[in-house]
Structure to design on (1170 residues):
């Protein structure tokens, strides 16, 4: 029988914060990449590579922090392959992104051979004194691990950086009209490679958050489409940083809710409930796609400085 | 580096071969890093299945594994040429299998000639419908077909699990997940047309698809419109192409072909609807399509090559203890190198770079 | 005149297969307005890109203020006091005016201070601009002002202007010239690139003429006739178009109340257009770029659909038909953008011939392509229009601008249209090809076809059109016979100075 009263609103909201972190990290990275005019469909591959890199390092060193660091490096490293293909070899971005995902899935499966079934060292929660003791708000907002706050800080930094900093202006300019940016003397390729690497690092962090905190263990293909949902999130957010946060909470909410409903024994087979994040993603895409006007004008166009 | 005035014909054909060679080298290095003898590993993958001691067993497998890859990749290639990115073939493959098997199971245990043809039609329609979803959403709301088709893969996988555990579960299966085995139901069995050759109806369908695609792309105005839309979408609209309808056509036909592949698989080599029925053909077919240069004959060859790596990979797994993930990565690498060497088709590399590389 | 500000000596730049600049030398004095004159493809763009640091010369030297000058990138050139206004604006549609200007500066002040400075400078030079507006929403003239302001805010010593008047109405040109003269009087040197001879005669102190990458002459444009300069520019006397007598027939095309939203975010909607076009007539539609020209062509080609009765071809409503059925009925079009719109760059000429020729040339048999017939059609275009190419198997992008344009226009002309609509038929085309294309249009009209020629080249329209109208913010002016029009009147039809009167009132 179904027992909805077993769902605690406090725990639900608190776990939304945590559940949204992986896609939030991946999406904010991809947002920067797309604002620079590059479409990297390899988020899933970079995420899962980050997941195994972070997991392996954390298990071997016992330090989740080191794990996250290496996960970021792993994601960035993989993304540089994409950068090489699209910015140097001028390959099609869609195909290259797909290649990155396929390659990343294979690579992670290979790296993860010896890590199936192991438990990672726990990532400590920051039980913030005083704030954490506030009823309701305390457990919801102030008793998470550092990565949750880091993700939020990253969103803020990206938002402010794009809006107010010189580097952000140049990045937007490159994404808007790469020929004009080139004519003004900006290094289009360099800006894009940096953006791609940043996106890769973020995706790697997101993946590691899955394997080290959310799940926490390593299984092949464990990202299960989270990278693709992150891509959808960028469209949902109309390429705006603040709305990525909103979207991530929405998706986090849906996935937490369906897990809770599963646990509560809703009379629907588990398989149907677990479809919901993907169906919601499609639904959201349908609603948001009416307004494509905000997409960076040079998105996915190949830049080659001729003459 | 400078752009060639025309794409180089020579490199168009040479670059896939070069990519394969480079992948073999890099793969060898990878296998060496895993502590295997690289020459032996490469030989096991590419030589054993064709000319080894047990080649009589492996050669038919080449067709069994190659047929779904070619069938799916032909459909994908039409879309890719038009700039329509259906990457959810895996889902369409699953739905095709479910629809086909569903029809077969519904008639069980009736013995009639029309059951298998009905299953073929159901499989194609199932894949078509699943492929049309991203198409219709794109047409109506402008949603991105890449993301929608991909999301539908996960939905299809969940549906497959639900079916294998629920409505399609074998009532005589003693509680194990999975449907009845269609191989034991002659009216629904996609058996080898000539015993032990691997030559089942799916292979025939793949051959027909290759020839059909070749004629479509080379001779028919629809194929011309597909190519035009992919290369110059604005020019295509100017020429009178309706891009939305064309995208719908591409998604529909690639869905139908993927659905057919799934249907032939479930009623033949796989035999039953099970949770782990899909093994990633829908994604590997993307590599096949590019490796084959989106050309029907190229895809046929690429499909066989990729089938070879599957079979060789299995042999290497059992003989040398090479992890199966290594083969997955090997395939991913192939697409990487292919995209990289593609540069040579459209650009000429200068050996003496000018001071300004811009 | 003072000592030279910029001295160029023996600049050479070669690209594979073509020498863009061959030992070019000239000097620009301080406070001088110096014209750089030449045909399309004469090497003007490459030369200024070298001065601006976008391209490195193979050999040769430059000195600025007597010191060696070899900018490695635009930043270095800007630091040395060289600023440039591009022909195809280097602007970012989705960003604001202030952000666009900040991007062109080395170390821009905070946005609020910058906005104030923009207002100050724009008032000083009579170039009114709101720093907070989104550039994509500006008119072509306003966009140019953004470019100019971006340069002026850096106190340049040398201002390079690449074909600045191609996007302006005659009135706006007058205002631009006032600004440039004022700058010159303040000691700024101006390198003024153009192929419009009368403008150069009105504005410039000296002119350097480029032909096929070499500087063939330097002259004082005020003392040289336009004809002499044209001869120096082209190197031979050009054919001029012959205008055969034409008989106007029945109404071929009737546009009634055509209104259409633009599919592009920064496009222009068409607002209630009315006009008719008779058999044998050439109607010229002028106007500054971005005032609805692309939308008008799309509405006529069938890429955009309208109410059926808004467009009537020989009395038959065709507004709701797509491009293919319109072609079948005899309404043919040739868009402005050659690569990617009128032609597919990577496809062969045969395949490009098939693109619009399928219907009328019967290149299809039950959906199957008759390749031999398509190739034959392509070969006919190549022969009849003197398209210089190895053959019909060549990719479109391998052709020069002029040759590809001859192919595109020829493809439509050879299909014997009832009505032909062309947009910018000679844009970016060398002089000889331009003459050939205009002649083809005149001949076609003489054979009884009705032609609508959309162009930003007023000289061209005056040369071939019987009647003239102008598009301004998606509206069409009255249509009047060309022979009685003055430049002043044309300018007013194009919308005058687009809100500039405020500044000069």
């Amino acid at each position: 029988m179904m027992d909805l009263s077993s769902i605690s609103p406090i725990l639900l909201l608190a776990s939304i914060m945590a559940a949204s972190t992986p896609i939030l990290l991946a999406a904010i990275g991809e947002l920067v990449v797309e604002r620079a005019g590059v479409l990297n469909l390899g988020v899933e591959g970079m995420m899962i590579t980050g997941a195994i890199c972070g997991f392996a390092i954390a298990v071997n060193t016992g330090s989740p922090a080191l794990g996250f660091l290496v996960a970021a490096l792993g994601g960035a490293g993989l993304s540089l392959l994409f950068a090489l293909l699209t910015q140097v070899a001028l390959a099609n971005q869609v195909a290259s992104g797909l290649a990155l995902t396929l390659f990343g899935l294979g690579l992670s499966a290979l790296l993860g051979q010896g890590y199936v079934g192991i438990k990672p060292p726990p990532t400590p929660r920051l039980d913030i004194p005083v704030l954490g003791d506030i009823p309701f708000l305390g457990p919801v907002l102030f008793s998470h691990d550092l990565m949750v706050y880091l993700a939020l800080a990253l969103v803020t930094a990206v938002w402010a950086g794009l809006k107010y900093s010189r580097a952000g202006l140049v990045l937007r300019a490159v994404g808007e009209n790469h020929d004009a940016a080139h004519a003004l003397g900006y290094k289009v390729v360099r800006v894009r490679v940096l953006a791609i690497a940043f996106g890769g690092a973020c995706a790697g962090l997101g993946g590691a958050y899955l394997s080290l905190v959310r799940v926490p263990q390593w299984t092949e293909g464990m990202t299960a489409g989270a990278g693709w949902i992150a891509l959808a999130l960028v469209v949902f957010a109309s390429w705006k940083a603040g709305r990525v946060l909103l979207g991530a909470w929405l998706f986090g909410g849906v996935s937490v809710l369906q897990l809770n409903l599963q646990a509560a024994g809703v009379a629907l087979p588990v398989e149907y409930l677990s479809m919901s994040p993907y169906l919601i993603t499609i639904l959201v895409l349908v609603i948001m796609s009416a307004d494509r006007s905000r997409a960076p004008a040079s998105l996915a166009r190949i830049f080659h400085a001729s003459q | 580096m400078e752009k060639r005035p025309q794409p180089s014909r020579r490199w168009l054909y040479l670059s896939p071969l070069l990519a394969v060679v480079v992948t073999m080298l890099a793969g060898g290095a990878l296998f060496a890093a895993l502590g295997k003898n690289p020459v032996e590993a490469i030989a096991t993958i590419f030589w054993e299945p064709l000319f080894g001691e047990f080649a009589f067993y492996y050669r038919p497998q080449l067709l069994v594994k190659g047929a779904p890859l070619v069938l799916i990749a032909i459909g994908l290639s039409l879309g890719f040429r038009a700039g329509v990115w259906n990457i959810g073939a895996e889902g369409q493959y699953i739905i095709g299998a479910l629809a086909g098997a569903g029809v077969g199971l519904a008639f069980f245990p009736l013995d009639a000639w029309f059951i298998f043809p009905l299953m073929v039609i159901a499989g194609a329609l199932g894949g078509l419908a699943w492929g049309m979803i991203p198409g219709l959403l794109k047409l109506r709301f402008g949603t991105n077909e890449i993301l929608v088709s991909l999301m539908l893969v996960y939905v299809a996988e969940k549906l497959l699990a639900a079916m294998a555990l629920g409505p399609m579960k074998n009532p005589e299966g003693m509680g194990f997940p999975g449907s009845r085995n269609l191989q034991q139901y002659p009216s629904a069995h996609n058996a080898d047309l000539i015993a032990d050759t691997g030559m089942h109806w799916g292979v025939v369908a793949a051959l027909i698809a290759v020839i059909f695609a070749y004629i479509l792309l080379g001779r028919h105005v629809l194929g011309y419109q597909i190519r035009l839309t992919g290369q110059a979408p604005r020019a295509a609209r100017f020429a009178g192409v309706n891009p939305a309808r064309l995208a719908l056509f591409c998604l529909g036909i690639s869905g139908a072909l993927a659905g057919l592949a799934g249907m032939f698989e479930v009623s033949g080599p796989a035999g039953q609807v099970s949770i782990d029925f899909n093994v990633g053909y829908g994604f590997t077919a993307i590599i096949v399509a590019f490796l084959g240069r989106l050309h029907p004959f190229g895809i046929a060859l690429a499909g066989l090559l990729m089938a070879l790596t599957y079979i060789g990979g299995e042999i290497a797994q059992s003989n040398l203890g090479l992890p199966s993930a290594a083969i997955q990565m090997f395939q991913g690498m192939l697409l990487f190198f292919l995209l990289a060497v593609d540069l040579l088709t459209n650009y000429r590399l200068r050996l003496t770079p000018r001071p300004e590389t811009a | 005149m003072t000592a030279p500000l910029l001295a160029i000596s023996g600049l050479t730049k070669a690209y594979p297969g073509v020498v863009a600049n061959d030992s070019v030398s000239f000097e620009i004095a301080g406070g001088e307005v110096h014209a750089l004159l030449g045909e399309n493809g004469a090497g003007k763009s490459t030369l200024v890109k070298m001065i601006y640091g976008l391209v490195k010369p193979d050999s040769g030297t430059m000195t600025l203020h007597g010191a060696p000058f070899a900018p490695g990138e635009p930043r270095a050139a800007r630091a040395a006091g060289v600023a440039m206004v591009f022909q195809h604006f280097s602007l970012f549609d989705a960003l604001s005016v202030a952000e666009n200007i900040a991007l062109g500066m080395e170390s821009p002040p905070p946005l609020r201070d910058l906005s104030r400075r923009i207002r100050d400078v724009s008032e000083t030079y009579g170039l009114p601009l709101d720093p907070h507006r989104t550039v994509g929403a500006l008119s072509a003239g306003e966009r140019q002002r953004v470019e100019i302001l971006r340069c002026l805010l850096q106190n340049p010593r040398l201002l390079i202007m690449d074909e600045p008047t191609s996007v302006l109405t005659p009135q706006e040109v007058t205002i631009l010239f006032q600004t440039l003269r004022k700058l010159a009087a303040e000691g700024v040197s101006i390198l003024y690139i153009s192929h419009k001879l009368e403008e150069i005669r009105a504005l410039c102190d000296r002119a350097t003429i480029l032909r096929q990458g070499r500087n063939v002459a330097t002259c004082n444009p005020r003392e040289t006739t336009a004809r002499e300069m044209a001869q120096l520019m082209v190197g031979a006397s050009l054919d001029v178009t012959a205008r055969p007598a034409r008989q106007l027939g029945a109404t071929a095309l009737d546009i009634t109340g055509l209104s259409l939203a633009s599919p592009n975010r920064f496009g222009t909607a068409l607002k209630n257009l009315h006009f008719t076009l008779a058999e044998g007539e050439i109607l010229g539609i002028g106007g500054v770029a971005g005032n609805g020209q692309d939308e008008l062509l799309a509405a006529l080609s069938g890429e955009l659909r309208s109410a059926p009765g808004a467009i009537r071809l020989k009395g038959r409503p065709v507004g709701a038909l797509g491009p293919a059925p319109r072609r079948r009925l005899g309404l043919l079009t040739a868009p402005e953008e050659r690569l990617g719109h009128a032609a597919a760059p990577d496809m062969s000429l045969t395949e490009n011939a098939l693109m619009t020729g399928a219907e009328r040339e019967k290149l299809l048999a039950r959906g199957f392509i008759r390749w031999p017939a398509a190739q034959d059609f392509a070969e006919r275009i190549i022969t009849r229009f003197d398209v210089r190419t190895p053959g019909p198997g060549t990719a479109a992008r391998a052709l020069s601008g002029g040759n590809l344009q001859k192919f595109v226009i020829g493809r439509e002309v050879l299909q014997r249209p009832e009505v032909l609509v062309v947009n910018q038929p000679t844009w970016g085309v060398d002089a000889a090809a331009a003459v050939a294309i205009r002649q083809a249009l005149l001949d076609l009209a003489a054979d009884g076809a009705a032609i609508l020629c959309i162009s930003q080249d007023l000289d061209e329209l005056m040369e071939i059109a019987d009647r003239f109208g102008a598009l301004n913010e998606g509206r069409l002016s009255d249509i009047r016979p060309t022979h009685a029009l003055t430049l002043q009147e044309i300018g007013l039809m194009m919308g005058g100075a687009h809100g500039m009167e405020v500044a000069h009132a």
The interface with chain B takes residues 16, 54-56, 301-303, 322-324, 327, 333, 335, 337, 340-347, 351, 354-356, 358, 364, 367-369, 371, 394-395, 397-398 of chain C (CB under 8 Å).
